[in-house]
Amino acid sequence: MSFWHGLTHFLYHSFVHYEFVLLFVLPLIESAGIPLPVPSDTFILLAGARHAPAPAYTLAVLATAWVGALIGASLLFTIMQRGGRPFLDRYGKYIFLEKKRLEQIEGWFRQRGRGIVIAGWLIPGLRIPTIIMAGLSGMAYTTFLPLAMVAVFIVVAFYYGVGIVIATQGHHFMRLVVAFGERYAALLIVSTILLALALLLLALRRKGLLARTERG
Question: Please, what is the end-to-end C-alpha distance for the chain in angstroms?
Answer without folding.
Answer: 59
